[in-house]
TrEMBL record:
This is Tubulin-tyrosine ligase family protein. The keyword Cell division does not apply. GO terms for cellular component: ciliary basal body. Keywords: ATP-binding, Ligase, Nucleotide-binding. The lineage of its organism: Eukaryota, Sar, Alveolata, Ciliophora, Intramacronucleata.
């Protein structure tokens, strides 16, 4: 790793792609991967793709011949559905379930109701205005409680404020309200939070990796517990970089070799000092790993549903990946608490610290996702082989469930072997040998998803209907129709005879008239020519007997669309045979 970093070109935080679309550049497209950067503003992404991986940068937003698409926006299901198996994109559809503050709070609160102790890693949350009544009950006379109010879809600290007065909150506005976390862990008297980068590389099964370096963002004013006089001091209570960098007290990092200086530092530098002071950093990492896994478990069914709907045949589970920024608060006991999740963390590189960490992060991510020409050629070759088989046989090769499971396991083993050898600064936290303990969270989240989408409504209706019916009713519903097997385009003369298709026991007779029953039984002895009609004859003529009789004729087993009904209707011979059939049934 150190030798590789020494050979890499230096990134100073800025990048300008001077190459244009020349004939020489176009000739390289066949032997070089293409990275579409039309929808990203970050120079570090372009630098890594161009200088480190030697890819061709593409700036046309409507182009489709790319291999890697990096976007700063959310990915819609339609985009993933149109992608080729060898293409990759840096977002998952449906990630709003974590990225938006209101969706994150809703999903985690549902899990907390079922698993109270296991999901206590985030502040108590209210979604306004829906839960305004419950939130209003928190304001009790004699108890000064501080709440932090956040717009449900904002970022970089915009619109956030602290309050102890209910009148400061408009009951009709959409906010996410949380209990303010008191007694933070302080370094040099300052409050701080962690920006931990977590990579989601698959949804079913989930594949989760945690980068071992990140950012520690400090407030710029010494911390004082909230009171009525300092609630408006955002540079004391909030650690957002976008807010604190405007403070004159903010100290920028100017030396990549000194990542323990300034109001933004590296996680490795800060954790190193804490470990020297005797704190258990390994336990802190393990506690954060638990938070990351449980958070993803709460939305795994949503993400998996979106992915399978768009790419049902991608058994490698590798066309999407996403770097998420988890913001972690540490209390006075060095216990981590989740604040929020960012699905588009900032890759701005305005300091040497940012340039170093984010360049290495993106490089290790793209390498871990196995974006290379050899993997692309293998996928294309496999796809050509399946297409050739389809041309030769005239049928699309459909895999059985067992074959699909086998392929998924083979692809998973191949990914495990590659990724374990190319982790870089990542650590794999899921799946591991003890991953079964998280199954109960995913199963409960799946039941919530089914209830919300109505997936299990029809299943429950059928089950309840079956349980409410008597055995006699169930037996009456079952009509014993023997369906003769046949192939499409079978000549009429080769079709089975009617008496072999429509047997006497398949006709239910409601009544006690023995003569009618005897007439029905005569059907088995009728010798008829093959009939070119798809419907049983309609009863006409004598339809009255001594007692009310109802003949329930089952549907024919032959599909009407296999026959030309107009030609049958004009066939006088068939009409004559139909009339003879009716007269035979009701002859005295």
């Amino acid at each position: 790793m150190k030798q590789q970093q020494l050979k890499e070109p230096h990134f100073n935080g800025e990048f300008e792609d001077s190459d244009s679309e020349t004939e020489d550049n176009n000739s390289k497209k066949k032997t070089t991967l293409i990275m579409n950067v039309s929808d990203t503003q970050y120079d570090v992404v372009k630098f890594v793709g161009k200088k480190l991986f030697k890819w061709i940068l593409q700036y046309e937003p409507d182009a489709t011949n790319w291999d890697m698409f990096w976007t700063d926006a959310a990915v819609q299901p339609e985009t993933l559905g149109k992608m080729q198996p060898y293409q990759k994109i840096n977002h998952f559809p449906g990630m709003y379930s974590l990225a938006r503050k209101n969706h994150l709070g809703r999903n985690l609160m549902k899990m907390r109701k079922q698993f109270t102790l296991e999901y206590k890693f985030f502040p108590q949350t209210w979604l306004l205005p829906a839960e305004y009544g419950d939130f209003k009950s928190q304001f009790v006379k004699g108890k000064a409680r501080t709440f932090i109010i956040k717009p449900e879809a904002s970022c970089q600290g915009r619109g956030i404020f602290l309050t102890r007065n209910l009148n400061d909150v408009n009951p009709n506005d959409h906010y996410v309200a949380q209990r303010y976390l008191l007694r933070p862990f302080l370094i040099e008297g300052l409050k701080f939070d962690l920006r931990v980068y977590v990579l989601l590389a698959g949804t079913d099964p989930m594949r989760i990796y945690v980068y071992q370096d990140g950012l520690v963002r400090f407030a710029t004013e010494p911390y004082v517990p909230p009171n009525t006089s300092n609630l408006d001091d955002m540079c004391m209570h909030l650690t957002n970089y976008a807010i604190n960098k405007e403070n004159p007290n903010f100290v920028f990092n100017k030396d990549a070799s000194r990542m323990d200086i300034g109001h933004k530092r590296s996680i490795k530098a800060v954790f190193g000092k804490l470990e020297e002071e005797g704190h258990d950093i390994k336990k802190l990492w393990q506690d954060m790993y638990e938070i990351f896994i449980k958070t993803f478990c709460a939305v795994q069914p949503i993400l998996s549903h979106h992915y399978r709907s768009c790419q049902p045949d991608n058994y490698a589970n590798n066309m999407c990946f996403e770097i998420l920024g988890f913001d972690i608060f540490l209390n006075h006991k060095l216990q981590p608490i989740l604040l929020e999740v960012n699905h588009t963390p900032s890759f701005t590189t305005d300091t040497p610290l940012d340039s170093m960490i984010k360049k290495n992060l993106i490089r290790d991510t793209l390498k871990l996702m196995n974006v290379n020409l050899k993997a692309k050629e293998q996928i294309i070759a496999s796809r050509k082989e399946s297409l050739q088989q389809r041309v030769l046989t005239g049928k699309k090769v459909k895999l059985t469930m067992e074959e699909k499971v086998t392929q998924m396991k083979q692809q998973e083993q191949q990914r495990n072997g590659y990724e374990n050898a190319h982790l870089g600064d990542y650590v794999k936290i899921y799946p591991l040998e003890d991953s079964q303990k998280y199954d109960k969270y995913i199963e409960f989240a799946s039941s919530l998803q089914d209830s919300w989408t109505g997936t299990n409504i029809k299943r429950n209706q059928k089950k309840n209907m079956k349980e409410s019916q008597t055995p006699q009713q169930q037996q009456q519903i079952k009509i014993n129709v023997v369906r003769a097997p046949f192939k499409p385009n079978t000549p009429v003369k080769n079709l089975p005879k009617l008496q072999n298709i429509l047997r006497p026991e398949s006709i239910i007779v409601h009544g006690e008239d023995e003569q009618v029953s005897a007439k029905v039984n005569k059907l088995s002895n009728i010798k008829m020519q093959p009939r070119q009609q798809s419907e049983p004859p309609v009863l006409r003529g004598k339809q009255t007997v001594k007692k009310q009789i109802q003949l329930v004729i089952p549907k024919p087993c032959l599909q009407p669309k296999l026959f030309d009904m107009e030609q049958i209707g004009q066939d006088k011979y068939n009409n004559k045979r139909q009339q003879q059939y009716q007269e035979m049934m009701f002859a005295k």
